[in-house]
Model the fold of this input.
Amino acid sequence: MFDAYLDRLNRLKKGEKCWDPYEGFRIARIDFKPPYLQCADYEMILLVVLQLLMKHVYNTTEFESGQFTIGYVMKIPSGEVTYTIGKAVPLNGNAAPNLEVCAQILKLLIKKAEDYDKALLSGVFIRVYLRGMQGTKKVPLSKDEMNAIILQLMNADIENADIDGSPEVQAMGKKSRYPNHIPALKPTTKERRPFIVADTETVLINNVHVPYAAGFIALRPGEDIGVYPDPAFETYFSEDDLFHIPEFKDRSDRMLFDFLEHLAILANRTNIRTVYFHNFSRFDGILLMKYYASRADKGYTFKPLLRNLKLYELAVYRDRKLVFRLRDSYTLLPSSLAKLAKTLCPQLGSKGSIPHDEVRVANLMDLREQLLEYMIQDIRLLGGVMLKAQDIYWTKYKVDIEDCLTLSSLAMTIYRSKYYDSISWPIHIPSRNEDTFIRRGYYGGHADTYKPYGENLYYYDVNSLYPYIMKSCPMPGGVPVWHANLEGQELSNLYGFIEAYVVCPNTITRPFLPYRDHNDTLLFPTGKFVGVYFSEELIYARDLGYKIFPMRGYLFEKKPSPFDSFVTSLFASRQEAKLSGDEAMAYSYKILMNSLYGRFGINPKSTISEVCNRNRYDYLTQRDNLIFGDKLSEQYYIVSYVGNAGNVEDKDWNPPKISAVQLAAAITAQSRIHMYKYISRPDCYYTDTDSAILGSPLPEDEISPIELGKLKLEHFVKRGIFLAPKSYTIVTEEAGDIIKHKGPAKDLVNVDWFESQYADLSRTKQLTVESHFRIDWHTLDIAKKAYQVTLGIKLGSKREPVYDHNHVWVDTLPKDVTDFGGQESQTLKFELMILRELLEKKEREYAQMLEKKDQAYASLESEMAKLREEIQSRSAKPPTLHKHPTAVKRPLTKPPTGLEQPTLYMQPKPKGKGKGKEPKGKGKGKEPKGKGKKPKGKKPKGKKPP
Done:
């Protein structure tokens, strides 16, 4: 097989190259010719990666340490797309790749094979980060020697290699250096601060966005932006330098330089340090960060706050003094600028529009006035929105939005300053061990498709599900206590987060407890598995028929909710605002009320990106969990890695000061309990966290359009097709067609696609999707890029489809799993307990059967005895004769004894036998029953009767 792989690779190989863009960084690549490799050919791709490593890394110079990432060049109709398929794999010194390295490579390749399957690859490359290169060239191995090493690795049991090495969570961690509970905030005495709002506009050059205009305006609290004359807006336009700067790129750079210099002057003169852009995180901020990285000689330095590839803030310094901080208004007010303006400041008019696709460098000057007016209106609307939002939150809560980066942090600030009682209800900040363990029980919402097609359905939505749970349910309080052995404990006496062995019988068609499989897919299966769960959901599951065996866990105090006053106050204020027609206030209360819970569940570990110097780059590229690193300019490098958000070095646990995952996990678990009575109904077609689509209406006492926690009828569904979680279409009476489809192809589906897909579930289609704002984190370019996606539905990922006799998909059944979670020895005891319980049950049933059998025997014997007594009793008495219609009554000549059977009509006895005499009379009697038969023909001999 290996020789066949080599032969195929040699036939497919179009070219191979290796280059070093800068010291310590190497790229090696193999290109293919048709017929291209597919992503599904992961064994062939493994061979390619190992060849690149052997030839261009291990077979070259000496080095101390290193890591590498794997990249694909995917072939699409419009060209090629390159991307990195996962985080970096560490190299094991100067030896050849070992089994652990191969196992990590294979794991990444298999994952991409599942994601992209038949997608074509025109190339595979590796990006290698080396440290301590000594310049000493190694004696190279021959081609045959390299192939022998690769053959040995590929013949090993790579897929079953242990590459996780995850130790079991221990009960106690070392002493923490951070607060053990969330502190309350004192009411502020300072006034609201002014801020600046700004915007940029771009044109596509070779499919890359390049700025041509920018502008800003400074705003003070309480002022009305509508009174500002247009001269108050400072605008900068690249084409104003058209005649003395011939190249557009140079004009763009000059425009940005003027914009940022004047912004710095204004910030210094007014002492306004915060500048807002709408969608700064994914657009304007990337452009400006790239500009500063390429202009290090201008005396500026900058520090980005990048988490999970999202830019929250860009702080700009000169001579180590803060000039300004650039921020995103979208993270505070997560909605489109058009919707926000319509809700919060309708008096400023609507958002304008320009034909972006028609804007070219050649016609920028012709469109100058139109383009600048469009940008000024965007700035005006953003200013109005921010002023209104600042006024609302300051008036009601004395909190300035300028102090917060995100909506959830704003909600947390309001809670901690106005509603939180840190004395009687201190919220515990988990330690590293506590957070790691409890986070395993933080599952989120429940989304599932049960029935794929229905008509005349009812779409119900819960009024503020999470706030309702936060207000109504007890919460885990106090400092958790670790219990290493909870075996045999009564579940009802436990409160906290428990690792348990769970057995769900296959008679439950809508299982309740969640489970994450090896692909991190959230299932609700039957079967046997180990997981961490909130005690309240374990108790609920037990009452449904699950078998629950607690093993270990952290136990808390069960305390009344600390969020009652927060939710009650905001919900009442929202209802008042709605009744008075104040949509702005109603919107503000709603987003606040729904944003608090998630802040407690913030993950201390995230993808962190740093823009740094070379020394820092060298250090970070050799740490664990590297994702990528690249050079931005002579002075700046960018590195992304997975790390502790509180402490880059990760030597000490230093989580965010508001992380309390036990509360977020308890809220979501009790929300699933609240929803289960609806989704467990046999007429439930689809559910998604706080909604359910049912085949029949709910009782009136469960319906309310305003009452917290009750359901409201969102839509009457004439017809619905439900293909997968977050992929459905419904036809409603009042809103027409509604389509939901997650993923990059969400804008390419319509009702016809859902119908044809339901008719042929195996149908797939390769499509090219264009992203107008795709960020290349290696270069900080924002480009218009096309990439290939497979449009189709993968059935059976969460539930198994059920077909009727015509092979039409009509229903689903839960998947069945068996996962002991590495606890085989412990779960074996529980399995034996289950078997013993089953045996005892069968023995009891058998004993009951024997008892019933004995009772049946006794009853039968009693009846038989009674019959015998009855027979004996009746035999001792003279018979009672009944008149026969044809019989003549004759007296018996001899009364029968007790041993003889009474006979009404006696047959004449044969002669010579018997001494009895026939009764007198002329009547004819019936022949008595018995063995004797009357002889045919001759009469019996004997004396004639007298």
Notes: Residues 824-875 form the longest helix (52 residues).
